[in-house]
Amino acid sequence: MRQRGPLLRWRLLSRVRCHALAIACFAAALCGTAPRALAQEEPGQRQEEVVANLAAGRVVIVVLKDAILIGTAENPVEAQTRVPAPVQLAGLRVGVLLGAVDWFSPSSHQEVARLDKELPHLRVATLFSNTPHLQQEQSGQEAVDIQSIGQGLFDRLREPAARLHTEIHWPENEPFVELLIAGFLPNYGPEVWQVTYGLRQLPAHGDFWDTRVQRPRYLQIWPPDKGQPHALMEFRYPAGEASPSLVDLLRQKDPRLEKICAADPQMKEVAEHLLAGETPKIPAADAVPFFRAALEAITPPNARATVSIMRAEKGFEWILAPPPEPKKPEEEKQREPGAPTLVKPPS
């Protein structure tokens, strides 16, 4: 089993050389240990706090008979967790980002990076000759286009990550950021890619570390290899999440899902196709009600969820759009003493 992801939220104290970092880590929360202490400040240096929030949770992608359905559910690991929400890309494609997506400075009220919102524009026009290329036969010319998106995100991600100068003990092979891309390629059909970005730190001097984002790794998840089942695809962040997948819950006859299947013969038929690895036999009209009900049933009450669909003819469409994001605590205006509130109206 892969090591559980360690990072939930971190606050970077960035001065002239970005010399201190406070980390609240996932592994520390599990073990009951305290976050790493801040490095000593150097006199005369201005400090600026930078906070990074994670998009965390599960992403379920299923290739249907006539569409691709994408469901996401938040794992509220901390107060400022972002729901992993699909983002429409160029052409018949949609992307979902997991990991460190929201970087901002509460002291200056400036957004450092918002990778999910920037994603539709993060691509490189030309891949350099020294950049490893995806094999052309994997998905024709589209592999190059997928790689231009992955490289564009890599270039943007390096900027905020370079401000991390305290050792954070990132697990080997644990994605720092993960990008899922699903869509249709003309004359090819549906495809799903997983692009992952690791993190590497090198000691510079003393307790000062250089942080580098590793080049993206590309894995084509769909179509499956010849002879393999056409199954539902599920992804988690942080990795190593202990809760069972949707298909595992169906196999275990989870009462929440059994109730859904018993309520409607079409719901039961959808579940049977999922268990048999026959998702391309499921029409979108039958799949949408099942996935809305199933996602609602297995998602914690305080977690946000989204459901969207990509059709080869009509493109991207929201079925359950993400709710508005809450304001960051640092962005809320300070209330004057004695001002009326909804909690305690004026007498």
Q: Average pLDDT value?
A: 78
Q: Give the termini distance in whole angstroms.
A: 60 Å
How large a portion of the residues is in β-strands, by DSSP E? 25-35%
| Overall CATH architecture | 4-Layer Sandwich
Counting H and I runs of at least 4 residues, what is the number of helices? 8
Provide the domain count. 1
Shape: globular
CATH topology: Glutamine Phosphoribosylpyrophosphate, subunit 1, domain 1
Number of separate strands: 16
Short description:
The chain has 347 residues and is an alpha+beta fold. The protein has 8 helices and 16 strands. A hairpin with a 5-residue loop joins strand 1 (7-14) and strand 2.
Would you write up a description of this structure?
- The chain is α+β, with helices and mostly antiparallel strands and 347 residues long.
- It has one domain (7-320): Glutamine Phosphoribosylpyrophosphate, subunit 1, domain 1, CATH 3.60.20.
- It is 22% helix and 32% strand.
- The protein contains 8 helices and 16 strands.
- Strand 1 (7-14) and strand 2 (20-25) form a beta hairpin.
- Helix 6 crosses helix 7 (265-276), helix 6 (255-263) runs antiparallel to helix 8 and helix 7 crosses helix 8 (284-298).
- The protein is globular.
- The N and C termini lie far apart (60 Å).
- Residues 1-47, 136-140, 330-336 and 338-347 have low confidence and may be disordered.
